[in-house]
């Protein structure tokens, strides 16, 4: 069950919210915990127990660490907690990839040995709740937070269904006070529901329509592809992944606001960035901050010399790529962004040059778009073939349908809307709102409701696709 499914929108969510607001404040955490477990248990199979077992493990280890005051024992307890959190992730997400890598190494060495590959069903959102568990234990060890009062409180935070499947990655300290006491105002409920509606619209109206073009082109046989189609596939996927993920984040943040929580922002118009450094300050911001605070800084950050800084950047972004998926393409995508960041640092610190302005934006937009090809490709050879098409080194021999076949009038409108929302100057809509005054504010809920019903109509006509990041 996903946020963009009729079962969630018209059955689960209304029933849950009715119950949530009917119970007393003391029972709200219990209600959210069991509601989240019920949400996750649907279609999750035996993977459900991975999440359930992580609750007592992190709760009891967190309290044990807090009781040791950064002693040697607390360090061992933290190590144990890190291992127990990472173990399911390594088994379910990376075991098959690691065995594939071993087989590739053996094949290069012309050795007859072959390791059997065992594939596991990937628990939805495992990368997200694993990172939450890790940050919770590390922050307790560092004295940033005190452990949750009860297993119910921690379990509610750890399994909260708005952000469980695809983030944002919410740290315990960011909502610590709201876990104990919260009372959503009517303004919060209205604002949250509107943000949810707009997020659903981003997903269904823009992301799914752009995805339908990208998916159809990526599935074509090689001989039916040319450079124009390859560029169109890259651009539509670039819009799809942004509005798919940003739409989910808006829905998660909106639902949390309805329930009295204030989750951190996860996107800030990343495609308006004028360099790659700025892009990573705007794209999936909760993940960027997580890697900065729990990997980059502990490795030494930029405090141990230039060479070590570059090595740390590459390590972080290789891990970032691997976090997204167990495949060579994801690792190379992370490495690609790490090299871009390293190049920007060299240009800035050695030559005093920094990408900015229109030229910086155009180059950054192009670099990000090129990187998404690696992210989308099923295999490395598939990515290389698309690059060859894009840059004129190859072309298919049987081009039955050109760009005009895919860019129908409705798709052109959806793409134009997506580009406008992604690239419009910051605060553009707020400025319009100030100029139009009360009329704009009064019409905003009506517009949100209209977007919601239009998205539902498109779902009824075309079905719905799972969120891209739910598989991470």
Main sheet record: none
Number of spatially distinct domains: 2
What would the principal axes of the Cα set say about the shape? globular
Fraction in helix = over 70%
DSSP strand tally: 0
Beta-strand residue percentage:
under 5%
Low-confidence stretches: none
Radius of gyration: 23 Å
Structure characterization notes:
By secondary structure, this protein is mostly helical. It has two domains: 6-185, no CATH class; 188-471, no CATH class. Helices cover 72% and strands 0% of the residues. It is built from 20 helices and no strands. It has helices at 6-22, 25-41, 48-66, 72-108, 126-141, 151-159, 161-164, 172-180, 186-218, 227-258, 276-282, 285-296, 306-324, 328-351, 357-376, 380-390, 403-406, 409-423, 428-436, 438-462. Helix 13 (306-324) runs antiparallel to helix 14. The protein starts with 5 loop residues before the first helix and ends in a 10-residue tail after the last helix. 36% of the residues are buried. The model has no long low-confidence stretch (mean pLDDT 89).
